[in-house]
Design goal:
CATH superfamily of the largest domain: ATPase, nucleotide binding domain
CATH class of the largest domain: Alpha Beta
CATH topology of the largest domain: Nucleotidyltransferase, domain 5
Number of strands: 15
Shape: globular
Distance between the termini: 13 Å
Structural class: alpha/beta
Helix content: 25-40%
Strand content: 15-25%
Radius of gyration: 21 Å
Largest sheet: 6 strands, mixed
Length: about 400
């Protein structure tokens, strides 16, 4: 390692997760020994009842280049900035270093210079995010060996982590799709042996949050921890704040479903149904192009292009990660999530008018879904590791 500390930050809508990152002489990366997590709720500026600007308005303002930040967003953003900066500062002090290189991943669409967030479904827009963090770090006496070049996609960083970490699930496959469910949805792709930025293929491949199911919700609702919570809250008449205060999260909701709670059972019926349809959309889009199974969260989004250079691709493995992966790993073979999900996916593939016999047999050998096509990520910290990797690979002395 050069004469600086490499740090990766995974930012979400509720907290930041900051890790030191190691790289050996062979260029292999691993998490370091120091980890600091700060929740935004630790800060006085944080408003637990904060409601993001309606997403269509955010997207319209972003497209017009006239982002009008509300005072509530500016105040909430202060908590986000302080939490991130404080986590980095604490890692540095524990490591007894002062020269640092930092990579940060956050959900949301980025500003033109890639150093801010111009649209975010579950939090405030923060157009000067990197600049404000750099000021906090400099004021604390830290030396940045390079500016924060860009705020990366936490989804792409999941892919980087899966590719470069020793336990990564992308390492031994040529074509793979990763779906992570934490605070939001994270999509990553490896095609023809290379990681693919979804921003580079946005003309034909949509991110999960961009697609809307027939019930009118973004598919992110059925993947993300907060979305599943919110869905259960709607069905049971409980607020998100109330569920959080009682520590009722997706694992607890699934336990309630197993005990017969009808709202919880309905919640996971919907999760299984739309997750199966989402994965079927991924399979068919890669093999035969966009089929129009979903509407768009942004009604002004152009329809995806039906042709692309990867037509005919069959996935070696579908990886489910983050908290969604934990839930699936614990749910394998159970009647609440796993069985209805597999049954739905199996029917969609076997009865498909889009997939030919070769594609169907690839996923459903003998008419039964091949469980080897589903894997679970072992890297809960893949986004933080990926953020550090990205900063290092882009670093120029």
């Amino acid at each position: 390692m050069r004469d600086f500390l490499l740090i990766g930050v995974d930012g979400g809508a509720t907290k930041v997760n900051c890790w030191s990152v190691k790289v050996d002489e062979n260029g292999k990366f691993s998490l370091g020994d120091t980890n600091v997590v700060h929740s935004y709720s630790e800060y006085s500026e944080f408003d637990p009842e904060f409601v993001p600007v309606e997403l269509n308005i955010q997207l319209a303002e972003r497209a017009n280049g006239s982002i009008n930040l509300l005072e509530s967003e500016k105040r909430q953003a202060v908590a986000y900035t302080k939490a991130c900066a404080d986590a980095i500062i604490e890692v540095v002090r524990r490591e007894h270093r002062h020269r640092i290189l930092v990579g940060i991943g956050m959900p949301g669409l980025k500003t033109a210079d890639q150093r801010g967030i111009s649209a975010m479904a579950n939090g405030p827009r923060q157009t000067n995010y990197a600049e404000n963090i750099e000021k906090e770090l400099t004021n604390a006496g830290l030396e940045l060996v390079a500016p924060i070049g860009h705020i990366g996609s936490d989804a792409f960083y999941c892919g980087l982590g899966e590719e470069y970490a020793l336990a990564g699930q992308f390492r031994d496959v040529r074509n793979s799709y990763y779906l992570g469910g934490g605070t939001g949805a994270a999509d990553a792709l490896k095609l023809q042996g290379k990681l693919i930025s979804l921003d580079d293929i946005s003309g034909w491949f949509l991110k999960t949050w961009e697609m809307k199911c027939p019930e009118g919700r973004s598919l992110e609702t059925y993947v993300a921890s907060r979305g599943i919570q919110s869905l259960f809250g709607e069905l049971s008449g409980k607020t998100l704040a109330g569920l959080n205060s009682r520590e009722i999260y997706p694992p607890q909701i699934k336990a309630m479903a197993l005990q017969g709670n009808q709202a919880a059972r309905t919640t996971f019926e919907k999760v299984a149904k739309y997750l199966a349809l989402l994965l079927y959309e991924r399979i068919t889009t890669l093999y035969a192009g966009w089929q129009g199974f979903f509407d768009f969260v942004n009604p002004n989004r152009p329809a995806p292009e039906p042709e692309h250079r990867y037509l005919g691709t069959l996935l070696d493995r579908i990886i489910i990660g983050q908290r969604l992966g934990d839930i699936f790993r614990e749910s394998e073979k159970d009647p609440i999530l796993w069985q209805p999900f597999i049954q739905s996916l199996n029917i969609l593939i076997c009865e498909s008018s889009v997939l030919d016999d070769d594609a169907k047999s690839h996923y459903c050998d003998g008419g039964h879904f091949d469980f080897n096509r589903i894997g679970y990520s072992n890297l809960r910290e893949a986004p933080a590791l990926g953020a550090g990797i990205d900063a290092y690979l882009n670093y120029k002395e």
